[in-house]
Amino acid sequence: MSRYAEAFENPRGPGDARPTALQIIQDKDLGGKLTGKTILLAGANQGIGLKTFHVLYETRAAVFSDVRSREKSKKSNRQHNRRFQGIRNLRNALKRHIGTNHLAHFFLFQLLKPTLLAAATPDSCSRVVSVSSMAHRASNIRFYDVNFGE
Questions:
Q1: Which domain holds residue 99?
Q2: pLDDT tens for the chain, residues 1 to 150
Q3: Would 149 be classed as within a structural domain?
Q4: Which of 21, 23, 24 lies closest to 44 in space, CA to CA?
Q5: Are the beta carbons of 96 and 149 closer than 8 angstroms?
Q6: Which residue of 37, 62, 67, 125 has the fewest CB atoms within a 10 Å radius of its CB?
Q7: Does residue 146 form part of some domain?
């Protein structure tokens, strides 16, 4: 069982006993240890994606991000460029809600799958990690307007 399991049994919101992603990176002694590895994050210009970007950057892996909004990307880059050199952003052509938030991740994985499998070794496997927030629980699915056109 994970050493963090007990902390997750009774979550009390931000600042409770659950470890942050940075604490886990530090506990696993991964700071600066992923040099030469490549990480691609989808949607890392704000929120949980940006926090994930910050933490993964501490491993010294080459971290890339695609974003939906060029303006948000520029704003994020300006705010964080001093701290993180080499931020790169890939433009995602899918702008629609379902395509961006669901199908694009699956499609990206399908495009990367042959390379991930070819790059894997017994000592260093390839990984795909999906990160999500619970924000979707705050509202029902609007099947009549999935692109939020109204």
A1: 88-133
A2: 578 888 888 888 788 888 888 888 999 899 889 888 888 887 777 777 888 888 888 898 888 877 777 777 677 666 655 554 443 333 333 345 566 666 777 888 899 899 989 988 888 888 887 776 666 677 777 666 666 666
A3: no
A4: 21
A5: no
A6: 125
A7: no
